[in-house]
Amino acid sequence: MEFSFPIRVYYEDTDVAGVVYYANYLKFMERGRTEWLRHWGLDQSVLIDQDIAFAVRRAQVDYYRPARFNDALEVVSTIKEIRGVRVLFHQKIVSANDRELVYAEGEILVVCVTLSTMRPRPMPEELLEEMSRDA
Known about the structure:
Layout: E1 2-8, H1 22-39, H2 44-49, E2 52-63, E3 72-83, E4 86-95, E5 102-114, E6 119-120, H3 125-134
Antiparallel strand pairs: 1-3, 2-5, 3-4, 4-5, 5-6
GO molecular function, one term: fatty acyl-CoA hydrolase activity
Protein name: Tol-pal system-associated acyl-CoA thioesterase
Keywords: Hydrolase
């Protein structure tokens, strides 16, 4: 299953050349994963209260075309693999008007951790069930 989240490019997202600064694509992807958690009914603030968080272990991104101020985009996220404490996401930033126009694409490896120690820990069972259903 894929999850799509709309993004509008704001002026603050762009660099002096008027294009989206490369690191902001990672922020867009983060928002896509966060909204997917909300879609599953899981609020990260509740997880934090339970001493649970997610940490990005690895991010690999390819950039294909520049997004510009006021572009309407979508972050399209899919789960590629769930294993142990890890989830590998495949994410694309595409045009909201034409999903064939891909701006950036990447694989983000996320690890569930105990927040107080930052050590890997098993994912909460209800989250694992939801993610496995969508994978």
